[in-house]
Design goal:
764 residues, alpha/beta, eight-stranded mixed sheet, six-stranded parallel sheet, binds adenosine-5'-triphosphate, protein biosynthesis
Length: 764
């Protein structure tokens, strides 16, 4: 969406960048790559200055940040073999052309994942590697693979067809790189263009949504390194346009996503049912997150003696991202977002929403508010998606609103701020989303709008905040109690137990009618939802569930985490607890709630302990419909009995209150009265609050005047000069103290004050 006008300092960072000419736009697949000529001698192919500038020009690439050296401190583990890491690219024994390309890319030192994966891949091992977002995983596989192939290219590559004689010709790549999104596939293709510069190897990309014609034309010019999204690749395999018979390296990027539901059939088609040979193939998997159940599944694709490399905790994130969580009801999100943008120096900002419609509607809203926005999501045409990304990259639209389609892998210079307008339900997705900022040692800010609908992710989120030494806001403090940061889930037991545990914790406490069960939420799986073995021995996944809800096909719906996503819980897990219900730590009694139990139940420590413990609302709904609680349901603390209710518990569980003066005549004989001494559970018990407690650094009644961000403040070369805001933020809604983005200054001097949360005017 084009910029409307600049009323508040936010404008296109590069306002003069022209909109793409619709007649001249070309697909990413046809971007120029180095074209080897048979007359060249290997090793001394001539330069192509224009292409070299396009591929390696500084303006297009993320440069290392101040904290690059902090990578040295991250713990690395390798399971499977003794490997000696390389400490420098010089030590890595790279092909001279690769050395030169690495230098052109300005890579001075390898990142940890590169230090280890270069020797692992060079020595011929299969690999599953997990390292933080933005830590150079793409080069970690491309550099050693291509370097090894450079010397053998003549021998290994398929002969090119004579021009115009492509009938019956099949592209036969040596390397296949699979990626889950079209944008990521084209980005990896761009990296391939860089690292194959002046070499004999020719990279190509195939991905859905774009014309297949130009992709085919490129394939028929020669394809040695193929990056693909699974759907389009399967299409080309079926049509006999591509053969995988020559594949030497299979790379599965974002492997946890690729092996999850949605891609499973395509992955089987590509790996198991194509002409790709197992014996001559080295398989490499990379991601920043790798839930245990996927690791187990991944073994089907790897040699038994594969290595497992982890840099930091699996699924962890970098401390270079300052993470801020703001309590914000849905109805206040737009308001909050505008104020948040107004209190930040304009800079490249990525806003994540949950739905495609939500993306369109927020895009339109911000545009009305004169913000230079654009959006990317699965319902936009591929042209629109590529244009949106380009506008975001070149600064014409420095605010990009995106769905999960942009969560993984995208590496865009100077994304300074990621805003989770809608928080996702899985922590791994959160890790990928916020990982679009703070790459290779740079700093970034991630702001997340949180409310009761997000409670299913709360504990994982708090764990991540604690692990990265981030501030845990008061309204999330309750989740800190039973988090043990030493409780690492990396233990890769690969056993055949298919129970879905909480990030690898093996204990799954089943849900039962006795709510004194205290573990972090698991449940008895309804019979029709049990994991099924749908084919191959290892491929155990959740199939279509009851109630017509199909949880296949979307990663956020895969049941990797122990709690079903909140909004689906009510559909298919009628008899299971809602993920809104949070249960206190082991050894604790039922902790109390600042508000009466309802569908958004949170149970906070400081609430006065009721004597009888009410069941969470929708548990009650199932177990207690139509009558008083049966005697076998004991919801009380040890040693106590269930207190009675003033009215017959009814089907509408939200109205059920359980108080001691419930007429005994309505209770079955076995139903027990509470002990005389027991205090009743009272609805009016203070401190009832419908909103979380105000923050200590909260809204000031008399805020200081709006401070224009300092002119030096800026996100680097793409910063706009600051204009006097003609549209200052509403002081009633202003953060205090002012939050700051990581400007060059603050990168050196540490962070500015975090965003505060104010409690007036419905702002929470
Ligand atoms: N050794 C290095 N020195 C400097 N920059 C590097 C180095 N290795 C990679 N980079 C740069 O770091 C950025 C991030 O790399 P890359 O996109 O491969 O990260 P990633 O680990 O795959 O991230 P994600 O998990 O988000 O996909 C890229 O711009 C890349 O060019």
């Amino acid at each position: 969406m084009a910029e409307k006008s600049n009323k508040h300092g936010w404008k296109a960072l590069n306002p003069n960048t022209p909109e793409p000419d619709p007649n001249k736009r070309e697909w990413a697949a046809v971007r120029r790559r180095y074209e080897w000529n048979e007359s060249y001698d290997e090793g001394i192919a001539p330069k192509d200055e224009e292409l070299e500038h396009e591929l390696f020009g500084e303006e297009n690439h993320v440069l290392t940040g101040h904290n690059f050296s902090k990578y040295e401190d991250i713990k690395v583990t390798v399971k499977g073999s003794d490997i000696k890491p390389v400490e420098s690219f010089d030590e890595a024994n790279l092909h001279p052309q690769m050395k030169e390309n690495v230098a052109l890319a300005r890579y001075e030192k390898p990142t940890p994942v590169q230090k280890w994966s270069i020797p692992i891949i060079t020595e011929g091992h299969d690999l599953m590697a997990c390292a933080q977002t933005g830590s150079g995983k793409t080069a970690a596989f491309l550099v050693p693979i291509l370097s090894r192939l450079f010397g053998k290219a003549k021998k290994l590559t398929a002969p090119r067809p004579p021009p115009g004689r492509t009938r019956g010709y099949k592209a036969q790549p040596l390397v296949l790189i699979l990626a889950p999104t079209r944008e990521l596939a084209t980005q990896i293709f761009d990296e391939c263009r860089r690292f194959t510069y002046r070499s004999m190897l020719r990279p190509c990309v195939v991905y859905g949504g774009a014309d297949s014609g130009p992709q085919k034309v490129e394939l028929f010019k020669g394809c040695d390194i193929l990056t693909a999204t699974p759907g389009r690749l399967c299409d080309f395999l079926d049509r006999g346009i591509i053969s995988l018979a020559r594949i030497r390296y299979l790379v599965i990027d974002e492997a946890d996503r690729m092996l999850d539901m949605g891609f499973e059939d395509d992955m089987r088609r590509i790996v198991a049912k194509s002409d790709m040979e197992d014996a001559s193939r080295q398989t490499l998997m990379f991601s920043a997150t790798f839930p245990q159940r996927i690791r187990k599944l991944a073994k089907d694709f790897l040699q038994e003696k594969h290595l497992f490399l982890t840099v930091g905790r699996v699924g962890g994130t970098t401390s270079d991202i300052t993470q801020k969580i703001i309590f914000c009801e849905d109805s206040e999100k737009r308001n909050t977002l505008v104020q948040l943008l107004l209190t930040q120096p304009p800079s490249r900002t990525l806003i994540f929403v949950e739905t495609k419609r939500g993306a369109d509607s927020l895009d339109a809203f911000l545009y009305q508010q004169h913000f230079p926005t654009t959006s990317i999501h699965g319902d936009r045409t591929q042209r629109e998606r590529e244009d949106a990304l380009l506008a975001f990259k070149n600064g014409r639209s420095p605010i990009l609103i995106a769905t999960a389609v942009a969560a993984r892998g995208l590496d865009i210079k100077n994304v300074m701020h990621v805003i989770n307008y809608d928080l996702c339900s899985e922590i791994d997705e959160y890790v990928h989303r916020i990982g679009r900022t703070a790459r290779v040692g740079n700093q970034g800010l991630a702001t997340t709008f949180y409310n009761h609908a997000n409670e299913s992710i709360a504990k994982d989120l708090v764990r991540l905040l604690l692990e990265c030494e981030q501030e845990v806001p008061d309204f999330l403090q309750q989740y800190t109690a039973d988090i043990n940061l030493n409780d690492d889930d990396d233990d890769d037991t690969y056993n055949d137990n298919t129970s879905y545990s909480n990030h690898g914790q093996q204990t799954t406490t089943s849900w039962d009618n006795n709510n004194t069960t205290q573990s972090q939420g698991s449940w008895n799986v309804p019979a029709s939802n049990t994991p099924t073995n749908n084919g191959s021995s290892q491929f155990k996944s959740w199939e279509t569930t009851n109630n017509g809800n199909n949880y296949g096909g979307q990663s956020q719906n895969s049941w990797g985490s122990p709690q079903p996503p909140a909004n689906q819980a009510q559909d298919s897990w009628g008899s299971a607890p809602s993920s809104h219900n949070t249960y206190p730590a082991s050894g604790q009694n039922w902790s109390s709630s600042p508000q009466p139990p309802n569908n958004n139940n949170t149970y906070q420590q400081n609430y006065q302990q009721p004597s009888a413990i009410p069941p969470p609302a929708n548990q009650a709904q199932d177990s207690w419909a139509g009558g008083p609680p049966p005697s076998n349901n004991n919801f009380s603390m040890p040693g106590q009995t269930w207190s009675s209710s003033p009215q017959q518990p009814n089907n509408n569980s939200n109205n059920n209150t359980y108080q001691p003066n419930y007429p005994q005549t309505q209770a079955p004989a076995s139903y027990q009265q509470p002990p005389q001494s027991a205090a009743p559970y009272q609805q009016s018990q203070p401190p009832y609050q419908s909103q979380p407690p105000p923050q200590t650094n909260s809204y000031q009644q008399t805020p200081p005047p709006y401070q224009q961000p300092s002119p030096q403040g800026g996100a680097g070369p793409y910063m706009t000069p600051q204009a006097t805001p003609q549209y200052p933020p509403n002081p009633q809604l202003q953060y205090s103290p002012q939050p700051t983005l990581p400007t060059q200054q603050s990168q050196q001097s540490g962070w500015g004050a975090p965003p505060a949360v104010q409690n007036g005017n419905g702002w929470q």
